[in-house]
Amino acid sequence: MYSQNIWKQLPQKRLWVFMAGFSLALLHQVVGEVHPAIDYTFFGFFVLLVGIPHGAIDHLVEEKYHAIQKKSFSLGRFLLKYVLQILAYGLLWLIMPALSLLLFLLISAWHFGESDMQPAPRHSLWKVNQLLLGSLVLFYILMREPAFTGDLIYRITRESNLTQAIWAWAASNAGWLYGVSAFFLVLTGYFAQRAEPLQWQQSKWISFLLIMALIYFLPLLPAFALYFGGWHSLNTFGHMSGFLDNKKTIWQLWKAALPFTLLAIFFLAVIAYVWSTLFSHIDPLPILFIFIAVITLPHLLVMNKMFSVR
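-> structure tokens emitted (310 positions)
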């Protein structure tokens, strides 16, 4: 159920992603400490123009899923459920930020791994392999600036000493954790391949390794943006196009996502305005992080339905 039209376009789009990532990585290596505005611009470009739009056609995916299941679909009911999930997760962040952070890391790792491994069989070993891959990628990105990440975790969990201590331990044992995770990733992949073979797309995984190599030379925020927008979101556009069984280009899908993309950006702007006028003494970065977290949960649930269909 994957659109060949979209997959033919992706190498061209990835070339632009590589060029942007390579340029910023080179700038960091040559100049050293670049102006923060450059990193924030890079982050905003990939997250706002690619990252958020890839989740803004969830309603089309859900409608298609209902059609496959021969069930009626209501856009109003879908949006209500979507917003309620966001509000419920947002409330959990207010009450239990440390638990919410753990949940976010787990669902992000699963979502990244599930998407990257598509089209993967639904065998349980492949599911374990997907979670391990996503966890390894997420930890790798967070380790680009371990001190900055630790400080962000401390602030976002409202100064939780436990989460700070856990991250400090993970950062100090990063090499060992990389090795163990990679070992089990290869081990589960080997047995999963024997149980239910996966046809590997060599060009895709070469591109993946190139993205990981560029991320190594970037600070946390642009590293996350390069993976999330330049890799994960573009691939997900391809998965969605195949699932929707159409011949639309990525540009056409992006335009279809525009109404809800603008709505998400509007709410983000409202939050920024309220923060700047009433809560300017509060650090805005944790607020942005939580915003990304709460919109990730309902998107993941929709994607999980899509990937469950064969």
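DSSP finds 13 helices and no strands in the chain.
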